[in-house]
Amino acid sequence: MSALTFTLKTAPRQRVDLSALTPDALADKSLADIAAIELPSGHEQPRVDALFDISGDDATDIVIKNATDRLDYIGHGMRSGRITVHGNVGSYLAFKLRKGEIVLHGNAGDFAASGMAGGLLHVHGNVGDFLASAIIGERRGMKGGTVIITGNAGERAGDQMRRGLVLIEGNVGSYCASRMIAGTIGVMGTTGEYLAYGMRRGTVLLNNAPKLHATIQDCGSHTLPFLSLMFKSFRDLPTKFAAVNRNRVQRYAGDIANDGKGEILVFK
Description:
By secondary structure, the chain is mainly beta. It is about 10% helix and about 30% strand. The chain is elongated, with a radius of gyration of 19 Å.
């Protein structure tokens, strides 16, 4: 068996919702059935075979080639299998992902990993705003799983994040970890303004000293043995964080304007 491959013929004029193309949704479907699936795209619903050339037969291993930033909701609600994407994608990548693995070789738009509850999202590129954050109208962002970003993330990364692990090897924009409820965010690059604004709980690991606002309090330097255990758990992850093994940090607590039980740990 070979991976079920969708090769985009030409860039669509309208955004296309790819929620229907997940391993669990395509299980036990014939190629004819898959080709006939209609995908929401503005006021139209083009068939899959009108947009993509289809090859392969293993629906547990999906590959999307020639992707563009008009393809949204890739891996929406996925519960098993693997999706590999080559090219840029639109918004809501891995939206409400439950299990399985999504690997993107390109850049993603806004709200990647929003509502994600399990599995792995690995982006070899940059992501837009609201990574692992709550969508408009919801009060919880990412709820579980692991996200690895090799490039940069936009603003509001981890906004209202509830649980899980986000590792960003590049830089992040303003309001990272804003209103964060729990979970862990690691950033190797720089952070923008208003880091941890309104943060209630959770942990932010930083490689570089951030610019902090008035309601984040300096708690001094500490050696924290639990960090060794945490980084040991990263060893098998495909990220630069797997090589980190440090437990001496400058600790900050906050946001004291909103419970103040969160912590920012900056490596010394």
